[in-house]
Design brief:
Strand order of the largest sheet: 3-2-1-4-7-6-8-5
Radius of gyration: 21 Å
Shape: globular
Structural class: alpha/beta
Helix content: 40-55%
Length: 330
């Protein structure tokens, strides 16, 4: 990595009614291995009503890193990040969310690939604590495990789907921002959309596993299902904006859901289809058992054997329904 210069990295954090989480995130930035003199933190309050602005104005001097605060009328996280980049002084713009806690090597690892001018964006990894509730750890498993669609996204050479950095752990260069204009006004998947445009501009996207943040997961099944429903809707929005961004893996949950419904109906009304339907169900059950065994071993909990298969079906169904809903209703 090239020697750092003053305010080389600008950390941009959008926030909306997350005062408590913001406090924890800012404290984690105190412990970065990158010297504070090379950093600036820009917090953009997206219209919070929980006292975030007042708290930060009172306490920002207590942190090791310089913190600037800007406010805006509610416009969404993409607009808040764009506002932050307009004010930023660094050569590298790093993004994270208030539900994350940066690990000490986060910024050093995230910024290192930018030694090459060919690199446009870098995305890091997400971790979770073994002490977290089992349900949160199950959600994390489903979003990252190699057996699930969340874990099959392209990382470290795995190419069932291309890897696109996401703003819970992402950095771009100033040059990329100037060339792309930043985030589009979307409330879902604006980070993937920007990553796709960065790639279309000829820059490389890099996954850096050592750039780690703790990512707090949803803590109820309803929140998790809603998240996946919105992800399914967002995928269609992205496909309409950029048809080339849609890959087979993105359609897989929707295709599986439609096939299951179709076979169920055919088996009920047309008996010759019943053996094929039963065979497909058998394969599905075997996969869910395998998933349950793998989850119980990795999460060190026998309960995960039962909960993960159920949550996996909920995850894929919610994504598929969201995908179909967005196809029907623009």
């Amino acid at each position: 990595m090239e020697p750092l210069t003053a305010v080389n990295i600008s950390v941009i954090i959008p926030t909306y009614n997350r005062k408590s989480e913001l406090q924890t995130l800012l404290h984690s930035l105190n412990s970065q291995t990158v010297p504070p003199t090379y950093l600036e933190v820009i917090v953009v309050d997206d219209g919070s009503t929980d006292g975030t602005t007042e708290w930060l104005l009172k306490h920002k001097g207590e942190f090791n890193v310089p913190i600037s605060l800007y406010t805006q009328v509610r416009g969404g996280p993409g607009a808040a990040r764009n506002a932050g980049m307009e004010k930023a002084k660094g050569d590298i713009f790093a993004f994270t969310d208030t539900d994350c806690i940066a690990q000490p090597e986060w910024l050093a690892s995230l910024s290192e690939p930018f030694a090459s001018e060919k690199i446009g964006a870098v995305g890091g990894s997400e971790i979770i604590n073994d002490s977290d509730p089992l349900l949160m750890r199950c959600f994390h498993y489903l979003m990252t495990a190699p057996l699930t669609t969340g874990g099959l996204r392209g990382k470290r050479g795995k190419r069932l789907a291309h890897f696109y950095p996401r703003t819970f752990n992402m950095a771009i260069s100033r040059k990329v921002y100037q060339q792309t204009g930043g985030f589009k006004p979307l409330f879902q998947a604006e980070d993937i959309e920007l990553s796709y445009r960065i790639k279309q501009e000829g820059f490389k996207l890099v996954y850096e596993d050592s750039a780690r943040v703790y990512h707090k997961r949803r803590n109820t099944v309803a929140q998790f299902v809603r998240q996946l429903f919105n992800m399914g809707k967002a995928r269609v929005t992205l496909a309409r904006l950029h048809p080339g961004s849609l890959e087979p893996l993105h359609v897989l949950p929707t295709a599986a859901l439609c096939l299951f419904v179709l076979l169920t109906c055919l088996a009920f009304f047309w008996k010759p289809v019943l053996p094929f339907f039963m065979a497909c169900c058998g394969v599905g059950v075997l996969f869910l058992i395998t998933l349950g065994v793998d989850a119980s071993l990795k999460l060190h909990s026998f309960k995960a054997f039962f909960s993960v298969p159920f949550l996996f079906v909920s995850q894929q169904s919610a994504y598929g329904i969201g995908f179909i809903t967005s196809l029907i209703r623009r």
